[in-house]
Amino acid sequence: MKLGTIRRKHISFSMAVTFSFLAAIFNIIGFVSPFWIVSKSESNLGFQRLGLWEVCFDQFIFPEDYVSKAYQGCWYIYYPEYKYIRFWLNPPWFYLVQILSIISLICNLAGLLMIILVLCEVYGTKERKPHFVVMGLQSVALLWTTLSHQ
Fold first, then answer.
1. Which of 2, 13, 23, 71 is positioned for an S-S bond with 57, CB 3.0–4.6 A?
2. Burial of 74 (0-12, 13-18, 19+ CB in 10 A)
3. Under 8 Å between Cβ of 106 and 69
4. What are phi and psi of 75, to 5 degrees?
């Protein structure tokens, strides 16, 4: 192999590894972030913010709740106390976003594991199979991330 070809492959592999690690970091940040939807500060309706797994209220009373319970604080989105407003907190499309985010995170982390194994030469860099597995896992992660954040 020519030196120029080897150098180009090394640069492209280094860029792929770097972008894969950055994608994993951003994917994890988005997965755990409680700031997917944030209310405006001037609106004083009691709703503060909603994340993929957490919701925050400040004396929020759901208008259609016949009990007129005031919700306070930040809690897990599937907290039993939210059973009367769960249909409002988690519409069907939100379940899909949660599922796609989980699949994306799993594929991204599995792809990173494969990249680490390739970098440590557990498989050896001469084999093509690990590279295709990494490309496949990262492609699935990209697809699910794109679909879940639309």
1. 71
2. middle
3. no
4. -140, 165
Angstrom CA distances, 55 to 38, 60, 119, stand at 10, 11, 40
**Helix/strand number for the chain, H first, E second:** 4, 4
Q: How confident is the model at residue 127 (pLDDT cuts 50, 70, 90)?
A: low
Q: Which residue type is seen at 93?
A: W
d(CA 46, CA 16): 44
pLDDT at 54: 92
Spatial CB neighbours of 73, under 8 Å, sequence gap ≥ 6: 56, 57
Q: Compute the average pLDDT of residues 96-108.
A: 89
Where helices occur in 2-127 by DSSP H, the ranges are: 3-32, 86-89, 92-119
Backbone angles phi, psi at 72, to 5 degrees: -135, 135
Alpha-carbon distance values, 78 to 51, 62, 85, 94 (Å): 12, 16, 10, 13
Angle between helices 92-119 and 3-32 (to 10 degrees): 140
